[in-house]
């Protein structure tokens, strides 16, 4: 190929090894700018550093030389050169690979980054390092991501669970919109007349209307380990959705080596997330003991444990398993989530998870909608 533009595009695709075969971006100004911006992210030795790495003579990385390029310059140029989808991917990589000092010190720079889960993780992890102006902006960004996720989840989750609550028993009240057609047909099959080909219905079944009381208690217990960040975000949102349902009581418990009851903040998931302490040890047995103290009707309770199930020494693990067994034997329905989210990559203690399964806990990795379906199955019995 002799077309410089085509060669430059192939150089961007193939990386620095292409230069060994005479494929480069030389003379293509826009391609060279793209090469420089990509190199700013992916050059060897770049990860975790706030400062550009000086090149040795003659060295070339995945992109062109990015010496002297600062994070603000990089953000401005990426916003100018790349379409939204590509820009969001690169900004996530910036947050993941580069030091975040400049982001925390300069609110005007933070405003230019597209809000996403990776950015939320960074802001939650380093919020104690922020100045007051940046902290206000960080809260606004977290709130935007949370609200977007909640809108995405809310309709289907509410429909799934409310549908189950309304259909967990029948009522003598004959309300057409509550007609249980499936049960009506099944219970009247004995009245089928083969001569006429008609089904004679002598009893019609109707679902009960939504109960005025809150018959189901959902207890959400969340491990604050750093690896559970995404699940923590989704858990706080799910708990806030559950709390808005008229036929549910919801409790939200966060824990590490201590236990914090966040049930009074269920309507403000951002307030919950701003108090999360990512990382450190954990004591799941202690959290489950506290959850047990909140339960009044075990047979009408669903406990959702979000954890990676790493408990350290043998006694700690045994205490957790024993507490799960106690809850299961008392009639509580138990769901363990190694991950909750749309793109969650679970890293969890599989042998411990297997022990929990044996004592009555369903251990899952699922989306919010799948969790709602699982809970609906429990409610229907």
Automatic annotation (TrEMBL):
Residues 215-376 form the VWFA domain. Residues 41-71 are annotated as: Disordered. This is VWFA domain-containing protein. It comes from Gemmata massiliana.
């Amino acid at each position: 190929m002799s077309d410089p533009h085509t060669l430059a595009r192939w150089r961007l695709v193939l990386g620095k090894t292409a230069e060994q075969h005479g494929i480069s971006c030389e003379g293509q100004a826009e391609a060279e700018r793209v090469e420089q911006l990509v190199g700013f992210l992916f050059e060897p030795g770049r990860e975790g550093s706030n400062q550009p790495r000086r090149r040795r003579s003659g060295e070339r990385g995945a992109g062109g030389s990015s010496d002297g390029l600062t994070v603000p310059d990089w953000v401005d140029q990426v916003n100018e050169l790349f379409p939204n989808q590509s820009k969001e991917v690169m900004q996530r990589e910036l947050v993941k690979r580069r030091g975040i000092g400049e982001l925390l010190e300069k609110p005007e720079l933070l405003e230019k980054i597209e809000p996403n889960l990776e950015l939320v993780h960074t802001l939650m992890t380093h919020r104690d390092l922020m100045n007051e102006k940046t902290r206000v902006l960080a809260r606004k960004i977290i709130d935007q991501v949370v609200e977007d996720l909640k809108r995405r989840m809310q309709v289907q989750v509410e429909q799934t669970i409310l549908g189950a609550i309304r259909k967990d028993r029948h009522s003598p009240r004959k309300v057409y919109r509550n007609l249980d057609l499936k049960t009506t047909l099944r219970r009247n099959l004995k009245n089928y007349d083969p001569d006429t080909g008609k089904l004679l219905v002598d009893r019609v079944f109707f679902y009960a209307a939504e109960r005025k009381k809150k018959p189901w208690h959902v207890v959400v217990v969340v491990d604050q380990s750093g690896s559970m960040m995404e699940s923590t975000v989704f858990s706080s949102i799910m708990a806030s959705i559950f709390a808005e349902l008229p036929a549910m009581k919801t409790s939200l418990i966060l824990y590490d080596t201590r236990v914090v009851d966040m049930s009074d903040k269920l309507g403000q998931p951002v307030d919950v997330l701003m108090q999360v302490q990512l990382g450190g040890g954990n004591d799941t047995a202690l959290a489950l003991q506290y959850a047990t103290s909140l339960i009044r009707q075990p047979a009408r309770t669903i406990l959702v444990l979000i954890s990676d199930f790493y408990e350290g020494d043998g006694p700690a693990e045994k205490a957790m398993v024993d507490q799960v067994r106690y809850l299961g034997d008392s009639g509580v329905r138990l769901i363990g989530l190694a991950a909750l989210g749309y793109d969650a990559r679970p890293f969890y203690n599989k042998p411990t998870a297997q022990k929990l399964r044996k004592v009555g806990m369903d251990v899952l990795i699922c989306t919010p909608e799948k969790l709602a379906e699982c809970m609906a199955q429990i409610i229907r019995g």
